[in-house]
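Case study 2.
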Amino acid sequence: MVPGNPFAGSGQWYRGNVHSHTTNSDGQFSVAELAACYDRNGYDFLFVTDHNVVTDVSKSRSPGILVMPGAEIRVDWEETFPAEVLALGIERVKNHKVAPQRVIGDVLAQGGLPFLSHPSLSGANATAISRLNGLVGIEIFNAPNYWTGRRGLSTAQWDELLANGHMLWGVASDDRHSGRKPELTFAPLGKQPFRDQYEAWVMVRAESCTAPAILAAMRRGQFYSTTGPRIKDIAVVDGEIQVETSPVRWIWFASVPYLGVRRVAAPGEKLAQARAPLFGLASPDGVSAMNRRFIQRGYFKKEKTVGHYVRVELWDGEDGYAWSNPIDLSRLNQGPR
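Prediction:
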């Protein structure tokens, strides 16, 4: 099993949302209504993450979906605007409005998964995030904040962290509060709620759709995030990374500064697969070659130490994006899979 690459492991695929709110905080659905909506719309699991409190998810009453507890916990962080930790799989909130490291410790002590909510919205830069110990990852895409222009995309911080050796996973969510698109007014709630707000979700590859299996898989990074496009396979074979996807406009192999490859479809066409040599990414050999090139050109005198990673990002040409988790190229067996 390769951490960050669910396609190199075993299990089944399960669709889930990791960030949602109910009437127990500032949401407009009860637990039962929220679970029923996700159940009807093809989700396998849901985390209820009300603000500063763990909601009783036993009231979900939807047998077709696994509903798990969590919370979005406010922290006191002088370096940022209001910030929160997205805590998955916890039974209670021990502290809130305290330093983020204390909240992360509380979550880890309960066997939960701490992610940093919407870093761009909170003004949390990579330097500040890098000082936190124990984070499993960050929320790289928050749908309502993205579509209202409120800094919902945090892939820049993600790449800065990864480039500096912090192997954190990235989750996307629709941060569900209601059933309305942020910029429009619709009919009363309950009428096609999932057609009235942009969605973002995770696809987790786990041994079963149970809380222990989902949490264990997410802890290992065995998932990808999407607003629609599918990642069908990621493989490292014979010195290159190969990807199969649903039809998209471009496939980007994102890596450290000055490395990375983007494959773009011809006008009017779509891509469904792409490949890139590891030498052009942050593999050990690729980084060494980059360092030698810049030292020879006089840009710096000492080799730069960077993280050896690649992640895959898709864009379908409209509103659809998908993001794989980072794969650590220094740990890969680069031969045939």
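Helices lie at 31-40, 100-109, 119-122, 126-130, 143-147, 155-163, 211-219, 284-296.
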